[in-house]
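Q: what sequence does this backbone want?
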């Protein structure tokens, strides 16, 4: 245990804490300690116990859902609801953690991406899983990479007109996104886009589309193309995620 002795000496006050009291503590923590974060707590039945106002506003949660499971959500497909509910039951059963990308289509019709971390809450006194803690944050891979790239290459700027960007085809946008997040091989790009679009995108089609992009931007390889894209802040207004709304488990 790596705790300052002054605080470790106080641990005795938790030695006999019940499952309900410990869950109440986590609910209090979410409600009072994370006012500017998207966080929530569920019990071992996967019922909502507490969530922050930011979580409530971001995902259009109603207070009526407290004491109910995610199956009571509205505006989300039954398939996504069932998928998330089963994932959370697995977290409780296996006493595990889970990281995922959640693509959520809000009421304005915009699909936002989030990094979601969930972990089982275990009472060390009883050994029981008492619930789940969920922490969520915005996650935009292209924007994060662009900010880093520009900060490291202040003198490197390529100019792209908005008219040029607006001429991109849907497939070009998806290929650009793959390149930005590090999917470089033509075969890998084709497989990734085919999987998420549920349509057959061949390696030849990816090759031909890349050649079109190279000619359009006057470059000869994908690295040069990514450099051009990352140095233009407004490029990301035109990039579309090829992923349908849902919760995709990742291995971090």
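A:
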């Amino acid at each position: 245990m790596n705790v300052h002795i002054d605080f470790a000496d106080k641990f005795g006050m938790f030695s006999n804490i019940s499952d309900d009291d410990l869950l109440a503590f986590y609910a209090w923590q979410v409600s009072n300690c994370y006012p500017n974060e998207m966080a929530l707590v569920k019990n071992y039945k996967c019922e909502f116990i507490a969530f922050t106002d930011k979580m409530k506003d971001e995902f259009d949660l109603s207070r009526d859902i407290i004491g109910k499971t995610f199956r009571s959500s509205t505006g989300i497909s039954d398939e996504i609801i069932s998928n998330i509910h089963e994932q959370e039951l697995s977290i409780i059963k296996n006493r595990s953690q889970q990281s995922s990308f959640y693509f959520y289509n809000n009421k304005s019709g915009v699909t936002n991406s989030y990094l979601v971390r969930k972990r089982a809450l275990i009472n060390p006194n009883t050994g029981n899983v008492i619930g789940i803690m969920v922490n969520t944050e915005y996650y935009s891979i292209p924007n994060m990479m662009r900010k880093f790239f520009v900060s490291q290459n202040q003198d490197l700027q390529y100019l792209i007109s908005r008219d040029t960007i607006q001429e991109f085809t849907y497939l070009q946008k998806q290929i650009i996104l793959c390149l930005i997040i590090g999917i470089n091989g033509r075969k890998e790009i084709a497989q990734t886009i085919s999987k998420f679009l549920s349509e057959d995108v061949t390696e030849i089609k990816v090759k031909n589309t890349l050649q079109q992009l190279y000619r359009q931007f006057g470059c000869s390889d994908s690295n040069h193309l990514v450099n051009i894209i990352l140095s233009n802040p407004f490029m990301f207004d035109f990039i579309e995620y090829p992923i349908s709304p849902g919760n995709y488990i990742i291995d971090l």
